[in-house]
Amino acid sequence: MKTLFEKIIAREIPAQIVFEDDLVLAIRDINPQAPVHVLLFPKQVIPRIAEAGPEDHKLLGHLLLKVAEVADKVGLKKSGYRLVINNGADGGETVPHLHCHILGGRHLAWPPG
C-alpha cells in the first residue's frame, strides 16, 4: 500500500509543490502548525529515520541540504525556522515515510509539545 507521500509523488493526490528534484519533494502542509509549514521528503521510501541505514547516507545528506534551499525559497532564510523530524507514535509521526517539517513565519517557543 502506498503512503500518502508516495501518492503525492505519483500525482495521485494533489499538493501545493514548493520544490522538486530527482530525489526529494517539498509541499505545503495541509494542516499548518505555523504561518509557513512545508514538508520535505525523499521520493525513495524510508519509513522513519530510525530505519535509515548506511546506504541512505547520500539521500539523507541531500535531504538536509535541500532544507536550507527550500527554507530560503519560502522566505525563512533571514528570520529563521525550525526543522522537525518525527519518529514513531510518541514522536508525533503520522505518515510512515521519512519527512522533515520546516516551520517558520513566527517565533517558535521552546520546549515544543
Walk me through what this model shows.
With 113 residues, the protein is α+β, with helices and mostly antiparallel strands. The protein has one domain: HIT family, subunit A, CATH 3.30.428. The chain is 20% helix and 22% strand. The chain contains two helices and five strands. The protein has a five-stranded antiparallel sheet with strand order 1-2-3-5-4, covered by helices on one side. Strand 2 and strand 3 form a beta hairpin. It is globular, with a radius of gyration of 14 Å. The mean pLDDT is 96.
Shape: globular
Count structural domains.
1
User: For the residues shown, what is the average pLDDT?
Assistant: 96
CATH top level assignment? Alpha Beta
Largest sheet: 5 strands, antiparallel
Superfamily (CATH H level) name: HIT-like
Annotation, overall tally of beta strands: 5
- Measured as a percent range, the helix fraction is 10-25%
H/I helix tally? 2
CATH third-level topology? HIT family, subunit A
Proportion of residues in extended strands: 15-25%
